[in-house]
Amino acid sequence: MNIRTLFLSVGLCVLAAPALAQNAGQAPAGAQPIEVPNLEEEGLVGTVTDESAWQDLGIAIPAFATNSNQPTPANSQGTGALGQELGRVVYNDLRNNGLFRPVGPDALPRPAYPEITAPTWGTWQGRSAEMLVQGYVRANADGGLTVGCYLYDVQLQQELVREGWVVTAADWRRAAHKCADLVYSRLSGESPFFDSKIAYIAETGPKGNRVKRLAIMDSDGANHRFITNGQATALTPRYSPDYSKIVYLSYLNGYPRIFVYDIGTGRQTLVTQSQNPTMAPRWSPDGKWILYSMATGGNTDIYRVSAAGGGTSQRLTDTPGIDIGGSYSPDGSKIVFESDRSGSQQIYVMDADGGNQRRISFFGGRAATPEWSPRGDQIAFTHIAGDLRVAVMSPSGGGMRYLTNNWQDEAPTWAPNGRIVQFFRTAPNSGEASIWQVDLTGRNERRLNTPVGASDPAWGPVLP
């Protein structure tokens, strides 16, 4: 994938004005340099670290304009229709995350190309829009596309930020995700997460004989691709910190093996194998180590092994019972895991070398599949008390609260910015699994579209 950024930030816009489009080639007619004020001093930078109720922000996202409707491999109807699709992707990204109240291109008038850099303010004020996202798409001579994205404050009648990208036709959705990331970051003050990918287990076949394949897709469920063919059962994938690889568990020929799949080359490296039950491989933040659990002699402990494969595993736990599901803290200094050493499944934390093991969950019911937030301030896990629900708590075990309330939700995984949690939901009776996501308020749930049943999601970092 090749995506080239034309402008990086509002700060660059100030220095590099006139408009972005001039640097991308031919500017939309009527483009005028806009002096961007010091927005931080004016208090327009927000934060979502406070999880209390957020006042939704109304954002109008009309279809992206085009200077000339040209044929493009990205859309058989040309760049005009592609502009509509770009607006829809941005709209779908920004809704259902608990922060914004967007209105999409199918319900809005379409601005003309010259209006992208000179909005008709009265149109959007009349619709009570607080913010306005406008963009354009142009077909390049080499078959690629240039996509520009502008965020305006309608009430102030000011441009807040702009950015542009040159992409291949196949990567047009990445430009839309980049635009949504730009808007999200500028208005929330948070790191972005839309231009990212998800690994998961694709499930087909009857309940008692499921075929489970490793698959990947965009953060919104688009561009789905199978990685393994289903001859061996695949389980529990996780992206490497640098996004280049996926570690997963494979039952090839009936024995558990941990493989690292190189996304760029398609090559697989065997990390470790055993005839003993092996589970839940996880990367260290520096990508050098892989945690996993293995049962020997009726006792399951957590080990770590070099991610390069071929080394000797180091056992980190050594207590009676089942220790499983290790997940590193963002700084790599600690590991959270589940254990039944106290008589029921609970959450524990230990130092990265296995020392200082201590229990942190003491509420009723059982707790499983813990995963540390990329922020470091929360641990998501599955709470088992009759139903299975996704919950979060602090690293000290306090402040437990539910994010979901369904029959069987489990295996949470964090968005790169720690704002959204994905999990999989199993339907009663049929056992069909599907991937869902919910924001930290617990109020905004969304099901991701997958071509077949789906479980074990693993959210990777934002694409480089």
SSE layout:
Blueprint: E1 3-5, H1 10-16, H2 20-23, E2 57-60, H3 79-94, E3 100-103, H4 121-125, E4 131-139, E5 145-153, E6 158-167, H5 172-188, E7 196-204, E8 211-218, E9 225-226, E10 233-239, E11 245-252, E12 255-262, E13 268-273, E14 278-283, E15 289-296, E16 299-306, E17 314-315, E18 323-328, E19 334-339, E20 346-351, E21 358-359, E22 366-372, E23 379-385, E24 387-393, E25 401-402, E26 409-414, E27 420-426, E28 433-439, E29 445-447, E30 453-462
Parallel strand pairs: 2-3, 2-4
Antiparallel strand pairs: 1-6, 4-5, 5-6, 7-8, 7-30, 8-9, 10-11, 11-12, 12-13, 14-15, 15-16, 16-17, 18-19, 19-20, 20-21, 22-23, 23-24, 24-25, 26-27, 27-28, 28-29
Helix pairs in contact: 3-5
Walk me through this protein's architecture.
With 464 residues, this protein is mostly beta strands. Helix content is 11%, strand content 40%. It contains five helices and 30 strands. It has helices spanning 10-16, 20-23, 79-94, 121-125, 172-188, and strands spanning 3-5, 57-60, 100-103, 131-139, 145-153, 158-167, 196-204, 211-218, 225-226, 233-239, 245-252, 255-262, 268-273, 278-283, 289-296, 299-306, 314-315, 323-328, 334-339, 346-351, 358-359, 366-372, 379-385, 387-393, 401-402, 409-414, 420-426, 433-439, 445-447, 453-462. The strands form seven sheets. Strands 1-6-5-4-2-3 form a six-stranded mixed beta sheet. It has a four-stranded antiparallel beta sheet with strand order 9-8-7-30, with no helix packed on it. The protein has a four-stranded antiparallel beta sheet with strand order 10-11-12-13, with no helix packed on it. Helix 3 (79-94) runs parallel beside helix 5. Residues 8-55 have low confidence and may be disordered.
